Amino acid sequence: MDKQLIEQVLKEYGFQADQVNYKPFGTGHINSTWLIILQNSSEQYILQSINRNVFKEPEIIAANVKLVSDYLKKHNPDYLFVGAIPTRDGSEMASVGDIYWRLTDFIKNSVSFDTLSDPDQAYEAAMQFGRLNRLLADFDASQLKETIPGFHDLGLRYRQFAESLENTTESLKQKAEPEIQKAKHYSFILDYFNSFKNSSDFPNRAMHHDTKISNMLFDKDTMKGICVIDLDTLMSGKFISDLGDMMRTYLCAFSENEPDTDKIFIRIEYFEAIIKGYLHEMGSILTEVEKDLILFSGKYLIYMQAIRFLSDYLNGSIYYPISYAEQNLDRTRNQFKLLAEFFEKEKILVDIVNKCLNEN
Predict the structure, then answer these.
(1) Distance set, CA 254 to CA 116, 132, 338 (Å)
(2) pLDDT (tens digit per residue) in 98-125
(3) Half-sphere exposure at residue 136, Cβ-oriented, CA atoms within 13 angstroms
(4) Residue 275 to residues 74, 215, 230, 291: CA-CA distances in angstroms?
(5) How far apart are CA 329 and CA 306, in angstroms?
(6) pTM of the model
(7) Domain range summary for the chain, segments of one domain joined by +
(8) Per the CATH hierarchy, to which homologous superfamily does domain 3-64+83-106 belong?
């Protein structure tokens, strides 16, 4: 990115070019990120540009984070919430060159991971995401606007799948026929969700919505969880969004990009770590309906991601970046294999959930 542009952004925060050093930071693919280092000082910050292709209205992100930040400062002032640092004129983001930017503190002595290598990491992450959910249990989530409309709306995603099926080529349809049939077969997951959707015991809560392990910071020395980061998708939703996304992304040793489905299976010890960590914080908060839907949360998120990959494949792979023509079809197969694992191992997983619920 243009050096002059970054320096112009830094001026919005009161920094002069000769006062700071900066360099690209992290491995994220959505927003561009820099580490800002003040010369002759120990102060460091994170500067991010907001991807307008994904987040059409960055102002909504800023408003949501500000609402939550103000609430936590009032009700839980000791909680480490990585909110935005205002610009010189008091704005939550800087707008320069038709790009929106935000500045946050750099959390010292912290480390993040792209993959998990130990169940303890899953436990710590689940506990930290659960803690954020718990501390916001009494927050009025209806104040939060959607930063990505319909992000975890399975009904919307299924309608998009149906549309892609109508508009795709015969060639793509034939190649994906087994996966198309699986998508239709598992549609009972949507029906089951809809039967609970409007229950008063299935409330909307303030959810992070993107609980992959790279959105957690760990202490470099103790490997204990410090805080959650990347709050772009902080908005109202069901608890299954956060817990289910952890299951989808933590349980298998391989990501959705692994084409060999023989490698895709649930690591039971990681499942137990997630449930224990999450219930450590949310066990006393969840309603009876939510407790009944703990295992279902994984099925919901995995099925949704499977049909999103499949829809994109049928649409000609126009949304998810691919490195070869059939990658979105391979991703679909990967997710359907993980979903099948949930049903094959259901008794084991249910027993773990019940045991963890009884311990809380």
Answers:
(1) 10, 27, 10
(2) 889 999 999 999 999 999 999 999 999 9
(3) 31
(4) 29, 18, 22, 11
(5) 9
(6) 0.93
(7) 3-64+83-106, 119-359
(8) Phosphorylase Kinase; domain 1 (3.30.200.20)
